[in-house]
């Protein structure tokens, strides 16, 4: 079975890609699932996430699992860099392994970064040198701020973007 849909491309992604975004927090946590990592049509949890972050002033939010580990944002995978290591959540219990995520992980490794899939609390983002998000539509988007923590470095993001020419 093939399902196709048509909608307008989110024009705000151009601005996000060039100028970055701010991430808040999300009270709704993702449950562990046998479907973890798989892209499927049951998006009830993402609907709940979008509902939970409606009052946020930031463009999106960091979403965690039941143990408080970073999983993703409402519609993208997340990466954070500390020195020469780039981290992305281990999605074996919750979340979606996006196509762009896999491409970015491969490119980062090719560029000499150590890439680790981890189960880490959201507080680990506060110690990062750089944070960015990805999905197939928006490409790579720099994160300027998570909560009160500001990020100005874009070394890994710029290196991958120069190879993929997404923004």
In short:
By secondary structure, the chain is an alpha/beta fold. It has helices at 12-19, 44-52, 99-110, 155-164; strands spanning 21-25, 60-64, 70-72, 77-82, 85-89, 114-118, 130-135, 139-146, 149-150. It has one domain: D-amino Acid Aminotransferase, subunit A, domain 2 (D-amino Acid Aminotransferase, Chain A, domain 2), CATH 3.20.10.10.
Report on this model:
The protein has 167 residues and is α/β, with parallel strands linked by helices. The chain has a single domain, classed as D-amino Acid Aminotransferase, Chain A, domain 2, CATH 3.20.10.10. It contains four helices and nine strands, in the order αβαββββαββββα. Strands 1, 2, 3, 4, 5, 6, 7, 8 and 9 form a nine-stranded mixed β-sheet that branches. The mean pLDDT is 88.
Radius of gyration: 15 Å
Q: Name the helicity range.
A: 10-25%
Mean model confidence by pLDDT:
88
**CATH architecture assignment name:** Alpha-Beta Barrel
**Which range does the strand content fall in?**
25-35%
Examine the coordinates and then state which fold CATH places here, giving the name of the CATH topology: D-amino Acid Aminotransferase, Chain A, domain 2
Shape: globular
